[in-house]
Structures are given as structure tokens and as C-alpha cells.
Amino acid sequence: MYFVHGEYDHARMASNKADWNRYLRPANKSSYDVLIVTYQGRGHEHFQEEILNIFDWMRVHRRVTVPDELDVRVMRPWDNFFWWLEVFDLPAATQVIPAEWPVSGRSAGVISGKVDRDRNLLQLPNCAASRATVWLYPGLLDFERQMEFNFKGERSRLMVSPSAEVLLEDVRSRAEHQHPFWARVDLPQRRN
Fold first, then answer.
1. Three-state SS letters, 135-163
2. Would you call 20 helix, strand, or coil by DSSP?
């Protein structure tokens, strides 16, 4: 994250102070890549002269397209899609409409998952939702090998083939042309 502000823009400093402190001193000991640029003697401005520096910084910083691990907390009903995972049927006790906040007696739904490419395994040990869809593409898991899914302790192994229908519908619905999903797996798997 790259922030630019003027030394005398006190409103900007006051409104961002807590967030900047959190970014610069993360509680979980992982590091955030943060740069805060302060122009001394300047107030609230556009800082056009900083644009070239921002582009230089962006050239060496690339956002991970899709993470191998997920660890999310959800409370808004519409927060149900995370990179390669879509969840359904989150418990009412984990849902709050933001306009109704604060609400007592509710806590965030926890969702965690991990991709193990070596074992062609996708694990979802913690998932507040009762159902999930895993969206796959080449590179996440290997379509040439049997895939294994672990959804809250329930294991399933299956061969998954790319689907033109899934790919085209994904491109249509998400408008993501560079990283479309090629297949989907609904979890838990239905038993015959």
C-alpha cells in the first residue's frame, strides 16, 4: 500500500492514523508492504509529482493473483466469494447487515482453506458455511491427476475435467478474462 499526504493536512492524518499504525505494526508478526510519503510543509493536495515514484514502486510490487491459503472472517451476507472459494448457507448467527451494526450475540463466520499442489489436495478444515464450491483452473490443482478435497473432515477424491460451459459462464459472470475458472467442484460431495 502506498499513501501520500501533506504534513499540514491534519484531517487526513487524524482519520488515517489508526489504520497506518496497524499496517506498520501488524499484531500477527507478518509484515505488510506499506509506504507512507509525507510532503513537509504541504497541506491537502493532489501531489502529481509523486505519480512517477508510485509507478516505480508498482513495477516491483505484484499482487498475488490467487493465494494458496485463505483465512477469512465474514459477517455481511453477501461476503461469500474468496478467490477460488464460494460458500453458501452461512448461519444466521454469523450474519449482520452493516446498517444494523452493532448487534450483540453474533460473531464472524470463520473460513480457512489451503491448497497443497504437491499432493493435489485442497483443504477446507474450517468453514462456517454448510456448502461450498471450489473453482479450479490450471495451476491451482492438476487436472491430469486425481484431486483430493477435504471439506470439514469429509474427504473426497475425484478426477475433474475442464468444462467449456463452466469457463464461458465464469467469463460471462465475473468478466475476468485473464484468470477464468475451468471447472468447479461442489462440496460436500453428494453420495449415491
1. EECECCECCCCCEEEEECCEEEEECCCCC
2. helix
User: Please, are residues 97 and 77 in contact by the beta-carbon 8 Å criterion?
Assistant: yes
Residues 6+ positions from 19 with CB-CB distance below 8 Å? none
Residue 90 has pLDDT above 90, yes or no: yes
Q: How many CA atoms lie within 13 A of 142 on its CB side?
A: 9
| Cβ–Cβ under 8 Å, residues 36 and 1 | no
- What is the four-CA torsion angle of 158, 163, 169, 173, rounded to 10 degrees? 50
Q: Please work out, in degrees rounded to the nearest 5, the angle formed at the alpha carbon of residue 100 by the alpha carbons of 95 and 103.
A: 65
Q: What is the pLDDT of residues 112-125, one digit of tens each?
A: 999 999 999 999 99
Provide φ and ψ at 28, rounded to 5°: -90, 15
pTM over 0.85: no
Using DSSP's 3-state secondary structure scheme, residue 37 falls into: strand
The answer for residues whose C-beta is within 8 angstroms of residue 33's C-beta and 6 or more apart is 1, 61
Q: Which residues contact 95 (CB under 8 A, 6 or more apart)?
A: 75, 76, 77, 106, 109
Q: Which of 13-27, 108-122, 130-144, 169-183 has the lowest mean pLDDT?
A: 13-27
